[in-house]
Amino acid sequence: MANFDPTLIQKAMSDKTGTWPFEQARAIVKRLFIEGRRGIDRIDRTVVFETGYGPSGLPHIGTFGEAVRTSMVMHAFQHLTEGQIPHKLICVSDDMDGMRKIPLNVPNRDMLAEHMGKPLADVPDPFGKFDSFAAHNNAKLCEFLDGFGFSYEFHSATEHYRNGTYDSLLLRAVQRFDDIMGVMLPTLGEERRATYSPFLPVSPTTGRVLYVPMKAVDAEAGTITFDDEGGSEVTMMVTGGNTKLQWKPDFGMRWAALGVDFEMYGKDHQINGKIYSRICKILGAEPPVQYCYELFLDEKGEKISKSKGNGIAVEEWLSYANPESLALYNYTKPRTAKRLYFDVIPRAVDEYYQHLTAYPGQEPEKQIANPVWYIHGGNVPKGGIPVSFSLLLNLVSASNASDKGILWGFIKRYSPGASPDKYPDLDRLVDYAVKYYEDFVKPAKVYRDPTDKERAALTDLTARLRDIPADQATDDETLQTLIFSVGKDHEFENLRDWFKAIYEVCLGQSQGPRFGSFVAIYGPEETAELIEGVL
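RE: above sequence
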């Protein structure tokens, strides 16, 4: 048992940090010490932060998103309570769910079809590496969570159902069967109401999870009676893995059984949040603080699905960018729907390094509002790079260089003293830039011919670039001003059209980095030759 000075809680509740992780952390403190415990300034157990995983498909980036965002809230909670309240993150796999459809992105789909309806923990692994399909996907989940250094406990719903962890709550659910039905039935259509039961028995003959009505429920004995698939009547205990709960009652039961204090879920769960909470209360526990986030969309604007395999997988993002950029993408505006596709990667990388560069010079209250504080759990490393990722991509594009040595030659001219040893992050970004350019930028390039007006302006630009004094050849501001001047002198009413013309004619794309910065790193003479080449 831990005892606290009440002023600690008062201090936490008076904190004004406006970021969403701190807003949630304060809500947890309020639930524990002000609402749920009526002001009692102590807690005798570990505060539980939960994230769930549905192993019906391979682990997806959305699962990582829940883990990283929940970890951010957990760190804010630790900061608010000055590390005096024990807490942990648990990841619960719903691996006793019956397999209702076969993912499109797995092998041996015909074999899987033979096991439709069985708990995922009892379905053979189509990859042939683990004891079950669930075990394979659970291992994949833990593998990439471990790879990101998350501190968490893995929990298997199947183990909890079968080893007795959930037994007391299942018996309570039998006793309060009518109360649970009173919550669930109004949410269902007429046909579904006629056959609905919160309990899903596992057939003793086929091993499949059955969606069948109950013929009898014995609260005193803790049993249910139903017709098995063959038509025979079966009476069985609800405990010991004989049954599982429908997913909505299961959600609330899990909160009660595991003492969950915080959970976030996607917008597709939002309408059911109140149902989960009511079930949790019926089973004798207070529901956790809940945070609903918007779903990621693929390149077509459709919801990302584990079974479809659309969108980006974690390993795909990490082929083109650093993991911190992925964490930043998850931190930013979680309640706003965002496209999660390959074209968002460069901006995420650059924004991460912008925040990292700004961090050391910020006041403490600004630092704690900086995304890198959450990404690194408060232990923000020294960092920053002299060249942005977007600029590297255009450098690769203009130079047609896939050799790191050539690219580092440009970088060193722009930033004397820079080296792979001094900037290891930048060295990794050079590799990422080459791969990203080859896979996404190069295939999409479309050059166009300049108009007469644009040709005249570009010709003038090449002449002025060659006249730049050597001591100003790497000065971003001088070069940017020069490029602006050319656009004005050639009477581009909107200078954006002038820069767009440069990108489309010279680089084969409609937009790009600050062009003065590009010239500074690529070189005024080399840029003049590039323009002359395309003209």
